[in-house]
Amino acid sequence: MRVVTLKELVRRAAATSRTSEEEGQKLVTTLFDLAGKELDQGNRVEIGNGLAPLSLRRPSKVAAGTPIDKLADRDEPFAISLVVPKKDFFTSVLADRLTGPRSKAQIYEGVENLMTEMATRKPDLVVLDSSLSGSHDLIRALKRGRETSMIALVVINPEDTDTNRLDNLRVVEDGALTEPFELNELVELAEGEIRRSHEERAFFQHETRFQMATRDDCIEEANDLAAQLVEQSGISEERGAALTVAFREAVDNSARHGNKSQESRMIDVVYLLDKDKITITVTDEGDGFDTEMYLRRGVHGNAVAVARERNEAGRTGGLGIMLMLKCLDNLEYNYAGNQVKLTKYIK
Amino acid sequence: MAAIEFRLKNIKSAEGLTATLAELIGSIDATTVESFASVMDKLLEKGVRHLVLDCAGVKYINSTGLGILLKYVDAFNERDGGIVFSQVPQKVMLVMEMLGFNALFTIVSDEAVALQHFSGAETPPVSVQVPAPEDEPAAAPVAAAPATPAPVARPPEAAAVPAAPPAGIFPLTVACPRCQLGLKLSGPGRFKCPKCTSIAIAEEDGEMKFFASRRAKPIEVSLPAVPELASGVTSLVDGAARQAGFAEEEAGKLASAVAEACRSVAEHACGNDPNSVFHMLIVPNGKQLTVKISDFGTPLEFSPQGPSSDARFGPVSAVLDVEHAQNPAGGNLFTLTKSVE
User: Fold this and answer.
1) Superfamily assignment of A68-202 in CATH?
2) For testing the chain A interface, which of B33, B58, B64, B197 should be mutated: the one with the most A CBs within 10 Å?
3) Does B143 sit within 8 Å of A323, measured CB to CB?
4) One-character DSSP codes across B57-94
5) Domain with B40 in it: what CATH number?
6) Of A291, A300, A330, the CB nearest to B194
7) Which of A14, A110, A147, B18 could pair covalently with A24 via S-S, beta carbons 3.0-4.6 A apart?
8) What are phi and psi of B187, to 5 degrees?
9) 0.80 cut: is pTM over it?
10) In this structure, how many other beta carbons lie within 10 angstroms of the beta carbon of residue B73?
11) Closest Cα in chain B, distance from residue A337 (Å)
12) A205-345 is classed in which CATH architecture?
């Protein structure tokens, strides 16, 4: 819990809203009233650990794109779940700011409360304090499930979080902010994510992104996760099995040939399900390769002959692209050769 | 973490034939292939001729694992013995079938049938619930590749094919109108005929359009690293260069330069080892000749100026543009290009 003086709070309110201290005092008073908080606690005010010191400035500009209150084909307000360690003054201010004509924010203390609520009611956006116990499990559960993966997810990371560090497999949120940040940054990000998610629901039924270190146990976990995602798609067992075989080959190629088995290098995976097909994109941090030659060999080559040739030369491998081509409806590499897109139609 | 464990025991048939039964537990992939090979080598050293690989405990196998299985199937066959696979899980069977290895492997239901096989009795076929191998080749999906642009919007030859029945359209089996190869299309989209490289476009309603490729067909050659054979590519490159639009004299120079490049690869990368193989892709297209050479030999190093300033490839660079890259699978990738002036 941090403590600031009321005077300091008013000064910051006035500075960030570009008004006089008198106006700042009114703004703080209004917000305290909204939060049901008494002002007569001396001149010291406690603020929660969960969220950054907040700017009280109203956003000076409308976020780019269609404002969520103008999004068509939606009657009920967008539901926002704010998951924090404890409900306090500032989380109430935040919920107030996230609540508008077309949105309603609700605060949940702890991950479990949200999970319980989600059994009956699914929000459009979850704003999650990543310092909470179980936050990573919640991210994984939300994005792994077909029913919940399209819920927009914004994560607030504690100060000093190294977002570039990746020690294991991480299911990736849709948006993130690291403390300290301005309140309007979060509001704009939240509105943007609601808008994006709302629009993407017209095209996609399941979207999951995950990243992993180039390490055998992470790769094994990724294979298991991909199999779980494919299983929910409605694709037949045989076609799904063929896709997971191809995925295994793609990740193995990225790890061994792309990232040269260097643990510090990352493999990024995006899984997308639409009404017709599953698309999985695997990207590594390697230099790529001559995709044209390998694809041509994959299409025209003889797997048995290639395997025997490699065996005679004392080498292994060489069949991965051939196997992927056989397993998939479409196999596509980017120009550099460090990203492969696997496509399998549902039927 | 992937691992592979062997549980070995000897089994004997009623006729007295002894075989080794290996129960495999784990996965066969790039991470376990060395330990798998180590045990298999020991079995060979011990003189085992008949081996039953019980695959009931195999979680999965990938393409690398499949390649190593073929190596040992060949090795046991050379000893007048053999490997028989029993209790193959569906997922493993699927991988074998996808690459056609099931045709080479003897796959049976259990060890008793495996022993019958070794004893010379007729082996009943195994019944595994996986999709039957396709008897018609699937059309290759059109893959994005830098030098393989999509066909132009108005290709010269387009043939409309009568629409397929409206219900249950896909997978759709059609014959390529150019080469008559049967194509099995999984869904609507663009596909490339694997035989003649025509582009097939399947609409949602099953209507088909075919566009004949205007691109000259590439020539793919695999050569042992024998310097004398390199000169054999001269006539191929000469013909391809003329096809790309080069004059007779220029085509001859290009052919000689490419042959020289092949000799250099054979000597410097492959050490003139006749057991080493390198691959060539000759593409005469768009008034340009492109020759790609890949090997799995010693990665060659060049100065920052590249192969053009190197004695090994200097004469070649005088005739064509030469680019070098390390082959991600080991060895080298050379790209030789020359445009018609």
Assistant:
1) Response regulator (3.40.50.2300)
2) B64
3) no
4) EEEEE-HHHHHHHHHHHHHHHHTT-EEEEES--HHHHH
5) 3.30.750.24
6) A300
7) A14
8) -170, 180
9) no
10) 20
11) 9
12) 2-Layer Sandwich (3.30)
